Amino acid sequence: MRKGLNRLAAFLVAAMLPISMLTGCATYGVIMNEPLAVEQATPEDVLQSTTVDAGESSTNDITMILAFSGGGTRAAALSYGVLKGLRDTPMHSQRMLDEVDAITSVSGGSFTAAYYALHGEKTFQSFEPKFLRREIESEIKKRWLRPGQIFSRTSRTVAAMDLYSQDLFANATFADVKRAGGPALIINASDLGSGVRFSYIPEYFLLLCSRLDDVPLAQAVTASSAVPFLFDPVMLANYSTCSTSDTAWLSEMQKRAAGNPNLTQLANGLQGYSRKDKRPFIHLVDGGITDNLGLRALYDIVEASGGAKAYIERLGKPVSKRFVVIVVDAASTADPVMDLSPNPPSLKQTAAAISDAQINRYSVDTLQFISNNARQWAKEWSTPSHPVELYMVHLDFGSLKDRKLADTLSHMPTTLQLENSQVDQLIDAGQSLLRDNPEFQRLLKDLKTK
Question: Structure pTM?
């Protein structure tokens, strides 16, 4: 996989060169995290306060996790449509939306996930005008190109983060998200230096001797959506102000990793942050590079928590009889336009085709991998008197009944601005995909007959 990404990067450099030159005056990395204070220097002390409050609205009938994929505004609008669909689905005296316990996201999906985790019900009044229906890319460019700015040390990444922080997230930090009392939020990026998936969770920041609560929400969203060559990486310092060599959860993970290649790879990757002299700085880019669905990050975090039972305890709720995973997949489909001509495809077409092929193939493997693990988690939670049923809900454009619409949506650009009519189509598609999904219909039927 790593060699494939290296080849893809070479193509992208060539294909994106004119764009990268527009962003290309020399910029300087800005460290975007603070070290733990001396009184916080014991990692296990900080982790004692990381348990998530499931919220008063949850009935504990369902344990529900949402996964929002990458794909620019296309992904953000589709996942927003699914949130609206869950809001409009009644469940006894509650709404299905009130049963969401955690959201894991990458890239474009991270805008929706973070906004909802912070703003809750207000999302349905303000997210569309503040993000979905704005020319975000144009506004970032204006900020970066304003007089005197282009020759400063400020990169396009910092300009984007400032815009998100001021206009979308009101300068909120992860501590503010926790106080909001919504679902647990897992925003995912990619560690460019090691290829490790990097999630914005307390455990990972403690490996850097840093504290997640103090991190701006906008920083995580910027890192998660920092497409290489278009945006500089988000840089974190790997501080030496605490001891991470005896971190209990990582040591326990390494013990459990014996005979498990996926867990071994994760444990070894995370252990790499202990080599402070070799890796004093960490560079984060788009989460879609290492997992465009945000699902493998879910596996990582379940294992980092100590396994399925420990993760449920972290969510702050008892085990429910129904475990629901809803995957909002805004992936594109192959574009056959190049096959209509005998001429060789352009570098841009070739780069896009390679990117789509690798992401889509990896996503198929990821869906199967997580489905298998989710079944195992359900078994671990089950008892003879309390069996846990899994509902794996995969929502993608290929499931739409209208094939022409499916083709139109899957070929929309993955930019950060779309036409209002395109946003409308995506929001409607998210609602209809959820409503018509057979697995979701099975869940509704089982809830009625409980």
Answer: 0.87
